[in-house]
Fold these 3 entries.
Entry 1:
Amino acid sequence: MFLFYFSITLAVASSVLYHFSQKATPADVNPAVAIMATYAVALCLTGIVAFFIPTKIGFLAELRQLNWASYLLAFSIVGLEIGYLLVYRAGWNVGIAAVLVNVVASFLLVPVALIVFKQQLSRINIIGILVCLAGLVMLNWKR
């Protein structure tokens, strides 16, 4: 039960810090340089974390077990990083941009969940999706 709550708390706290730091990145810094510095620190931090989550088969054996998904994840992360950096530089509101991206991405993932992962949607899930879409309209409503 600890992992259940810890994991979502970590994800939420990290997301808040992520958007705060993206918005606070100086506008005159080259986005690629900013992301490279971020990844250099991230590489060091994950190296430290690896000591606390030891492998049973060894680091190199773990690397050999990776598939295409890890590499696709790298492309998506770079796209997210540069995308959000440019979104905030373009003047988007921190709260609106994050909600917009996450709701639209979630909406686009529904067919993936149904077709690729064979997951099911209940009536209440469908109602929730419609509420989120209504929320997007309200967030972008011009007064």
Entry 2:
Amino acid sequence: MGPSIMDRRELGRRGEWVAMALLLLKGYRPRHRNWRGAGGELDLVVEKRREIVFVEVKARTTDLFGGAVAAVDAHKRRILTRTSSAYLSRHGLWDRPCRFDIVTVERRRSFPFWSVRHYRDAFRPDLGRRL
């Protein structure tokens, strides 16, 4: 499937694999991928040195309309906050430090085919407890 006919779902799937590869190279350990709960989904949940990291992956083929980072707006942050709270409760992890990162993956038509950026600690929501 060429980049011009790659559908959004496939782009998202590939973007998550590219993001996970980057995080593994940085020493993160995967916990979950596409975890669903509390009305939302967590793209990636990883950890490093006991810190739980919720990673929102945004894959795009263009940076029009603000690019991938702009897609994590206030509404999306509320969904991520609610879903991550459910994750922490379900897995008994409220005692662990945690944060929210964004990984943007932009597909290009020529080499290098992927442009990947990791935004560490991209936002800090109120989870009802101190993080």
Entry 3:
Amino acid sequence: MNPKVDWFFNKATKWQEAYSELRIIVLDCGLTEEIKWGCPCYTIENSNIVLIHGFKNYCALLFMQGALLKDRKNILIQQTKNVQSARQIRFKNVDELLQNKSTIKSYIKEAIALDKAGIKVSLKKTTEYKMPEELKIVLEDMPDLKFAFEALTPGRQRGYLLYFSAPKQVKTREARIEKHLDKILDGKGLDD
């Protein structure tokens, strides 16, 4: 146990007991405990394997390369359709978690083995994402914006493409693009 992570497990939340049980299970698999993204993250040789986090209706163990796991028990959940590699096992209470203790350990051990073998999810390339017509038009009309957009990291480009493509109405897509022009020109991502 890493004392720098204790604060997460000591804070009073509805998931405090479940978090503590997950911590014991994960550490029993030989992983190193760290804090990343404000949550306990468990690594092996500096490679992220799983993360413990909580939401309003459930707490979860997130497998960074969960899409590769065999999921024999059909318990892994893809958070949204755009999440490519990570998968969660969700728990609504401590009893549910404890009933699945051996399954959780087997999934963690499989994730460790995949990581040691160097197997990673093949991620979709940024060019494979659909660019909304409204963005294409703006980029054609504004060469500086096109240059700035192409200079963004692939992750930042994907973030904008997903965000700009999501609305059904043209007016909303155009408004989103207009609102973020300066951020793109400044080389910033959607959440920067």
